């Protein structure tokens, strides 16, 4: 079993796809699906072209193979991103894994829009910056941060957020001269949607 406690669908390890052209051009622009901007992210923003995006889309949305991206943490909860490729009902599921639990907990999903429980910037950075060397999955900090970025529902982001996101984008191949603009674009869309309520109980609490 690829993800303990998660039995839905024909999961396959997707980590090797992160280094291929077209991945980030598929993954990150889904956050801009709210129709709130005239200019949608272009593949070139991520160092790709249209052919790269199309080729990767065929892999990511294959109903017979659901890519799963594991983000294991050394101390505390980790995350898993799963392309749930049901025919006619595609979506992306976000799960948390806990060292003291025998199952993965789905906390959110993207199905044209975000639903579920989000995380604060601090919680995202905590996951991104603490890879588990002993566990299979994504270990590069930049890729880890970008994979969990769609979960961001923080009300007040620290001043370092745009610079940290820009550095992560350039690390995975985004052009340096446009990476900061891309980061600002993505953050603007995240800030428009439902905000994190500080009274909500974090799914990381008690881990």
Widest sheet, order of strands:
1-2-3-4-5-6
Instruction: Kindly report how far apart the N and C termini lie.
Output: 23 Å
Radius of gyration: 16 Å
Q: Strand-residue fraction?
A: 15-25%
Largest sheet: 6 strands, mixed
Mean pLDDT across the residues is 88
Number of helices: 6
Global outline: globular
**Unreliable stretches, pLDDT < 50, 5 or more residues?**
none
Helix content range? 25-40%
SSE-based structural type: alpha+beta
Number of strands: 6
Order of helices and strands: EHHEEEEEHHHH
Task: Give a brief outline of the structure.
This protein has six helices and six strands; from the N terminus they run βααβββββαααα. It has 207 residues and is α+β, with helices and mostly antiparallel strands. The chain has a six-stranded mixed β-sheet with strand order 1-2-3-4-5-6.
Structure explained in plain terms:
This protein has 207 residues and is of the alpha+beta class. The chain is built from 6 helices and 6 strands, in the order βααβββββαααα. A 6-stranded mixed beta sheet has the order 1-2-3-4-5-6. A hairpin with a 6-residue loop joins strand 4 and strand 5. Helix 3 runs antiparallel to helix 4, helix 4 packs across helix 5 and helix 5 crosses helix 6. It is globular. The relative contact order is 0.18.
Note the topology.
Elements (H helix, E strand, L loop, with lengths): L10 E3 L9 H5 L22 H11 L5 E6 L6 E9 L2 E9 L6 E7 L3 E3 L4 H8 L12 H8 L12 H11 L7 H14 L15
Parallel strand pairs: 1-2
Antiparallel strand pairs: 2-3, 3-4, 4-5, 5-6
């Amino acid at each position: 079993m690829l993800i303990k406690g998660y039995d839905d669908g024909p999961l396959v390890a997707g980590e090797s796809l992160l280094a291929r052209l077209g991945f980030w051009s598929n993954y990150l622009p889904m956050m801009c699906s709210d129709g709130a901007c005239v200019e949608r992210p272009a593949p070139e923003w991520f160092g790709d072209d249209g052919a790269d995006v199309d080729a990767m889309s065929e892999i990511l949305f294959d109903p017979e193979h659901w890519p799963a991206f594991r983000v294991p943490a050394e101390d505390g909860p980790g995350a898993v991103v799963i392309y749930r490729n049901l025919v006619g009902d595609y979506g992306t599921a976000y799960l948390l894994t806990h060292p003291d639990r025998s199952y993965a907990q789905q906390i959110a999903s993207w199905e044209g829009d975000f639903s579920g429980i989000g995380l604060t910037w601090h919680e995202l950075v905590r996951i991104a910056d603490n890879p588990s060397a002993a566990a299979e999955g994504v270990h590069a900090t930049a890729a880890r941060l970008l994979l969990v970025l769609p979960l961001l529902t923080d009300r007040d982001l620290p001043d370092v957020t745009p610079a940290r996101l820009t550095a992560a984008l350039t690390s995975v191949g985004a052009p340096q001269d446009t990476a900061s603009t891309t980061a600002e674009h993505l953050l603007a869309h995240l800030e428009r949607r439902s905000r994190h309520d500080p009274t909500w109980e974090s799914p990381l609490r008690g881990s």
